[in-house]
Specification:
The chain is an alpha+beta fold. The chain contains eleven helices and twelve strands. This is SCP domain-containing protein.
Length: 330
């Protein structure tokens, strides 16, 4: 009998410190109508989506199920310091309780469901659940508990920036503390464009060539090309897609940094284009005087197109236009 009571008390203990499950979803706009998307399916209403979410998670107590809008996530001011999410309750609760200190986040990427718990990724819910139970017990007996769940490590831009190296040094000078969404998305991405241009010009100075300026006509051309690459169904000319970038919104600030790092494969004695270094040579091409940027954000993805003028990467002119960088930056 005592053994039964002990088991009952332990079960009640686990219930009191249970984890929450946050199910991710997104909102898409088609023909001026909003649709909710969950696990690859579109829903005309939030209510209908929630019905399927609850049906797919029958083993979880309804009070422990949260919703996480991936589209709202990037506009969360708290993300400035890589902390916190906006969690939603699927329905009104008479007496809502605080969100658990341990949250398992269910994601759906490339047709597969995966789970994230305290920065650890799991391929199955069973494995994530075991880890979550262990962590709830740990935090229950820890005097200073974790107050917020951190963003996944891959969303931390600084993870992609090293301590040494010219591209890292220039990136830090160009971006300062403006590498998070709330800052660089200001003014319909005007802040992002300004810093991308500044980063290019810092590299150009380092390679002993004049700075470039933005040009409204080139921006219109870039916008047209970007639209074609995003929405036209027919085959796009490969030359058009060279300066096209599609990546998660939080990586937008390292676009130019990635382009510049193509220098590692560049040969300064070349007379023609070296595949995989076109962005690097375009950025520091001496005869280029103007650039035009086009940017579009769709849900959690960032789309970018850049036009350089006059046209760079002209065969036979590489040696006079792609100069080695100065030995010391400053």
């Amino acid at each position: 009998m005592i053994f039964i009571y002990i088991n009952l008390l332990f079960w009640l203990f686990l219930k009191c410190i249970a984890y929450d499950l946050a199910v991710t979803y997104t909102i898409h706009k088609f023909a001026n109508k909003l649709f909710h998307a969950y696990r690859g399916h579109n829903y005309a209403s939030r209510t209908r989506m929630i019905q399927d979410i609850l049906k797919d998670h029958k083993s979880i107590n309804k009070s422990n199920i949260l919703l996480l809008n991936a589209g709202v996530l990037k506009k969360n001011p708290k993300a400035l310091n890589s902390l916190g999410y906006f969690y939603e309750r699927p329905s009104a609760i008479a007496a809502p309780r605080p969100i658990s200190e341990v949250v398992v986040i269910e994601g759906f990427v490339k047709g597969k469901v995966s789970y994230l718990c305290l920065n650890k990724i799991f391929s199955s819910f069973q494995k994530a659940k075991i880890f979550a139970h262990l962590m709830t017990i740990k935090y229950f007996f820890t005097p200073q508990r974790q107050k917020q769940i951190k963003l996944p490590e891959n969303m931390n831009v600084l993870r992609y920036v090293g301590t040494f190296g010219i591209s890292n040094t220039i990136w830090k000078e160009a971006w300062g503390n403006c590498y998070y969404y709330k800052c660089f998305a200001k003014g319909n991405y005007m802040e992002l464009k300004k810093r991308l241009l500044n980063e290019i010009n810092l590299h150009r100075y380092d390679h002993r060539v004049p700075p470039v300026n933005s040009n409204s006509r080139l921006e219109n051309i870039a916008a047209t090309n970007l639209h074609s690459l995003m929405y036209r169904n027919r085959q796009i000319n490969n030359l058009l897609s060279v300066n096209f970038v599609k990546l998660p919104f939080y990586l937008a600030p390292i676009t130019i940094k990635r382009w510049y790092e193509e220098y590692k494969k560049y040969n300064y004695n070349t007379k023609t284009t070296i595949i995989g270094t076109e962005h690097f040579s375009s950025m520091i091409w001496k005869d280029v005087k103007y650039v035009g940027f086009a940017i579009k954000e769709v849900e959690t993805m960032f789309y970018f197109y850049c036009v350089f003028y006059p046209k760079p990467n002209i065969p036979g002119k590489f040696k006079s236009n792609v100069l080695k960088r100065r030995l010391f930056f400053g």
